[in-house]
Amino acid sequence: MISNALCFFKSKLRSQLNSEDRRAKIQDSDFIIGLMQAVAKAKGNFTLAQLRLSTCAFLGAMIGTSAFNERLGTAGLVNNLQAALTILRVAGLKTNNSCQGLKGSLGVDEIIGIDASMVSLWDGLSTYFKGTFMEAAMKLHLAINLVTGAVQWFDITPGATHDSQRFPSLSPRQLYVFDLGYWSGLLLQKIVSSGAFFLSRVKSNATLTVTTVVFGMGQSILGHDLLSFPVTRKRKNIVDLMVTMTIGGVDMPLRALGFWHKRESAYRWYVTNLTCNRSFIYDLYRLRWQIELSFKSLKSTLNFDQMPTLNPNAVKAFTLIALLNYVFAVIVRQAATANAVKSGVKNAGSASIQKAAKLFAEMASLLFEPLKLARRVTDAALRRLTEKILPLLGSVFDPNYKKRKTTLERLQAMKI
Q: Which residue in 30, 61, 166, 395 has the most C-beta neighbors within 10 A?
């Protein structure tokens, strides 16, 4: 799996990005590969000088300081990195056939998580990336497949941009799972009209009028605002209601589900247009945590939060490099899962994206070795690479993965 992705990525990258100017000391594709491994293996608050030396050492060619900084800050590099990310997303896009039953039970094609994360920048970048609680900040908006981890969509904006102003294009039969930063009646209306599905927590100032009690509560709540109705004790563990939300003078029917929270002695409310078994809803929303773990991996391991530059193009370039390395980490996790399934390991779906990102960062130079320069990737070289990687894939799993099921595995085990 990793070998195939590497071969595909190298072939497409070189054919699409390499310029026809043979005088170039280092071709565009090689410069990108060198940067990716340099950022992946960098530690702490690295500098541009450290990145340059790491890139040069990996490629075996010297790039002057001014030439390196100038190349890093060009719009051309940003465009090339976007093209590289498109290529790699295709190379690393794998389906999870074991989840077909789950998606069939839900009536959806894919389960997509959407969220955004902000990175602080030097104040000098405030003209390009205005922050909110800080002078300058950049925000990465991201949508990932919550089953495979694959990047579905992204956008890079100033930090002051509200989450709800950026959302991926809607597709029928997709389930979009998001937090309260995206709460908007108009968005819910658009999702429904597009033939898609949504799942979100209910915002505390939302007005939802109860029209039908499906399960778990008495009829006295009918006609009342859901969040204003006093619930002083637990009725059922799960409460299932139909409600209406007025949007632009039109009442939109929604499904509201409450799950009793013991510590808070209250129900936590979720709203959706799914018609599936009510037992799915809580764990489905918990699945959204995968995108939080993705952002944590991007920042804590893949250096997304390190922006040692005052050049706005370089900020975008570093963001795209972090995303490229994240996709490679997803490929590493998929390889670990496939290897575990092949070996008959129980709970083989417990591979962690954080551990996969850590393993990828540790072996980035090894992985990228076949990608650099014009050398041909031989079958023997790929076999040697695979032999080195396979024994390491076990570190991608949580130490207790054989003892407990993941959220996804619990969902798969639920009855329709």
A: 30
Assess whether pLDDT exceeds 60 at residue 23: no
CB 239, CB 215: distance < 8 Å:
yes
Looking at residue 374, what is its pLDDT?
A: 65
pLDDT at 398: 79
> Are residues 152 and 145 in contact, defined by beta-carbon separation less than 8 angstroms?
yes
Q: Which two tokens stand for residue 142?
A: 């991201």
Run of H or E including 309: none
Q: Are strands 174-178 and 110-120 parallel, antiparallel or unpaired?
A: parallel
Tokens at residue 29, please?
């594709």
Spatial separation of the C-alpha atoms in residues 389 and 4, rounded to whole Å: 14
Task: Return the higher-pLDDT residue of 226 and 345.
Answer: 226
pTM: 0.94
Q: Is the Cβ–Cβ distance between 49 and 65 less than 8 Å? A: yes
Phi and psi, residue 175, nearest 5°: -100, 120
What are the φ and ψ backbone dihedral angles of 286, each rounded to 5 degrees? -60, -30
Which residues are within 8 A (CB) of 379 and not within 5 positions of it... i.e. 6 or more apart? none
Residues linked to residue 55 through DSSP beta bridges, in sequence order: none
Average pLDDT over residues 29-34: 92
